[in-house]
Request: fold
Amino acid sequence: MNTNHIRTVKGGASLQGIIKVPGDKSISHRSLIIGSLAEGETNIEGFLHSEDPLSTADCLRKLGVDIPEIKKEEPFTIKGLGINGFKEPKEILNCGNSGTTMRLLIGLLAGQEGKNFILTGDTSLNERPMGRVSKPLSLMGGKIYGREKGEKAPISIAGNKLKGCVIGTPVASAQVKSAILLAGLNATGTTSVIEPASSRDHTERMLKAFGADINIRGELGRNIVIKSDKVLTGQNILIPGDISSAAFWLIAASIVPGSDILVKNIGLNPTRSGILKIMDMMGCNYEIVEKSTIAGEPIGSISVKTANNLMPFKVEGDILPKLIDEIPILTVAACFCNGVSEIKDAKELRVKETDRLKVMARQLKKFGANITEKEDGLIITGESKFSSAEVDSETDHRVSMSLAIASLLAKGSSKIARADASRVSYPSFWDDLENLIN
Ligand code: S3P
Reply:
């Protein structure tokens, strides 16, 4: 493999070895944001040293938070400012490619009375929907403006006094839920969020650990209620590995003949581990070993070996939020199942870093995949014979890594353009791949 933006991957090799996946992206963002809201110091270990969480660090520094230079694999300490202590920055806050940074910061800043903020992102982020955050926050008194009637960044926020209220979110999105909960910390009274299906709950877990008055109620924990009367106190946070990064190896080992991998340090939070249910449906050959709990999050290592005769699967309904970032690699998996797999209710994929339904269908077809794109999903006919191809991540990190795994199944050498998009969530992906190739 070479080191420029085009990566070459040879098909035919099996994958063997032990991999420790990097820190969880969602928890890394939250460790900085919630640590900033706390009084006192927060010690962070296992932070994901990749572009997205580093964008959050950069924005928070501009807001006056004391965050040291973050070095790869080194624990560090930040000093919080309390709920109301953020300063009005002189510069525009650049969220890069990171939807989590932008949406959570909108929630954090909406209630900073009398202060003004401007947020922007890269070309992809500035096309993604922000009305899903700015509209509910405006019900609380938030003054948030943006292009296309508040729908798109650049976003400007005139910090205002917020009042708690009951908000039903139209999409099961942890980013939207988290933005409202963060705003609720700085609103009068009680704020209640009701989701259509439960999304990842890292914000709730972490806020509780920092001392917030937060309660999870309702059927399947879809109603979250927060009161603004508690001071948050700095904590020690140990961040587990990201199951969304582990997913590439779990699927790769399952579909690449002759593979045997142990993936260590995977966060197994039940609101994130939907992929394991799909792997069960497929009949994958895996075992969870070394289970434990760190910082209130279940973790484990997973040993995976190639499985023969993988069965097709259907992804639909309430499981979607639990595997939302794994759809690209599951699409690759479906190409190697015996029969027709279906991904439904997945419209959200169209507003990720790219339109992931369109991009995955377009790119995998170049290898010879049989995929039909639907409005809200994909139909994939398996038993594919992949030939080598020249494919393109189209700047999407998860597409880049999914195409790398797909290339392992193709005859000959494939080329992936803009492969370094992976730096957003998994900078060491290509080194890890090289180490696993036998
Ligand atoms: C995230 C939530 C999900 C996910 C994203 C990270 C988070 O987005 O796709 O990668 O950290 O809250 P949505 O909230 O838009 O579903």
Notes: Residues 33 and 126 are 21 Å apart (CA to CA). The chain has 13 helices and 26 strands. The radius of gyration is 21 Å.
